[in-house]
Amino acid sequence: MGAVMVVINSGTEIEWRRRTTKKQIGIWLGWLVGISIILFAWSVISEKTVWFFVQDAPRQAADIGSRMIPPKWSYITKLLVPVWDTINIATLGTIIAMTIAVPVAFCAARNTTPHNSVRAIALFIIVSSRSVNSLIWALMLVFILGPGVLAGTIAIGLRSIGFCAKLLYESIEEIDESQVEAVKATGASNIQQMTYGILPQVLPTIAGVGIYRWDINIRESTILGLVGAGGIGLQLNGSINTLAWTQVSTILLVILVTVFISEWVSAKVRGAII
């Protein structure tokens, strides 16, 4: 921060201040508003918190932790199919999402949308998808389609559309327009301009976003079983409900390894693309 020179007593005295009075008052008001918001939020949380359980939480956590050790390693064989279901949910959900997100992104980008009304609809789809968590999508789809992998797959797809389309349409808006103009100068149609002028520039982004979202979906699909949408979360929910803590620790370790492998694969593929 630069110092501010303030002249006092008809120019005979000079005082150096870090900030002007107006700016200092603004900072104080900002702190006052921030502290007020924090105190209000804390009061709301305090009213809805049973502090007896909070005080007893360390003892309960230590007790559960002791019951989870050692993990039940023999239970891993029963988790192979649920883990495979989880990977399939993430993979198929990502494919569904990217299939829909790419055209939605082209409709949402200012430089490729056919009309402002189409852009408004595309932006509404993006916002709607991103506003609802995948767990909520799964909860609704379980009631509609019944429990199982199908509900989880569609839930992951619906959640991912907005995320992927937002990143893609922002990338489309930042393309080098000179390449499009060069293709247009050859007499190319709008479809040809998009195919040869725009698409080659955003293909790496499309691939990168798809891989990145698949990595996220692996993590999200592990919990969909909590609402009956298939995957390893179903075993996790059942083990918690039956207080089988050694199975819970085994499932958590399997989830950790699965996420670690997906993260490694995602990083390698993105590195190869970029």
Q: What's the story with the biggest beta sheet? A: 2 strands, antiparallel
Which class do the helix and strand fractions yield?
A: mainly alpha
Work out the count of structural domains: 2
Q: Uncertain runs with pLDDT below 50, 5 residues or more?
A: none
The total strand number stands at 2
> Which architecture of the largest domain would the CATH scheme give at its second level?
Orthogonal Bundle
The proportion of residues in beta strands is under 5%
Strand order of the largest sheet: 1-2
> What's the helix-strand series?
EEHHHHHHHHHH
CATH topology of the largest domain: MetI-like fold
Identify the CATH class of the largest domain.
Mainly Alpha
If helices are DSSP runs of H or I spanning 4 or more residues, what is the number of helices?
10
| Proportion of helical residues | over 70%
Task: Explain this structure.
It is a single chain. The chain has 274 residues and is mainly alpha-helical. It folds into 2 domains: 35 residues, no CATH class; 200 residues, MetI-like fold, CATH 1.10.3720.10. Helices cover 75% and strands 4% of the residues. Helix 5 crosses helix 6. The protein is globular.
Summarize the structure.
The chain is mainly alpha-helical. 75% of the residues lie in helices and 4% in strands. It has 2 domains: 35 residues, no CATH class; 200 residues, MetI-like (MetI-like fold, Orthogonal Bundle), CATH 1.10.3720.10.
Annotation keywords:
mainly alpha; 2 strands; two-stranded antiparallel ribbon; 274 residues; MetI-like fold
